[in-house]
Amino acid sequence: MSWxxxxxxLGLVLIVLEFLFPSLGALGVAAAVSLIAGxxxxxAQDPSFGVNMMIVxxxxxxxxILLGMKFLPHSPLGxxxxxPGATFTNTAAVDPRDADLLGREGVxxxxxxPAGVVHFEGRRVDVVTRGEAIDAGARVRVVxxxxxRVVVARVAAPDAISTNTxxxxxxxxxxxxx
Length: 178
Prior knowledge:
alpha+beta, CATH 2.40.50.140, 5-stranded antiparallel beta sheet, 4 helices, 5 strands
């Protein structure tokens, strides 16, 4: 194996290591020196070999950067830098009192468009609807709890249920024209 190949490969490995270990650029500088020295040495041996090493470096450097970025979240530094995000078991942002709201009814304080506030037995809770606007004073029921979201739907008032007598046909009298 020739030394230019070793130097170019070493430069690519150092680029990946720069992502994994904080070196304040020392590994990056070493990678650049290694790549330049390998390509220069290859040109000194044979111009076509130098062109081939330059092509390998041109393709290898972006590949090494992508590989370093792929391994970064699993490195010790990456675990400190990258927020793991919320999990379904982490309930730090969820009010524990919301767990018993499912199925309960409350009164809308101000119009829900689709978000707003509902009173549940003296307690104010931020809620959202499934997209519809609900007027103030309407009764709503909690239909879904998803993380810190309390989803409500309008409750049909018992007096709003009408009978179908108005829509039923009336018997026609014999003296009315049809």
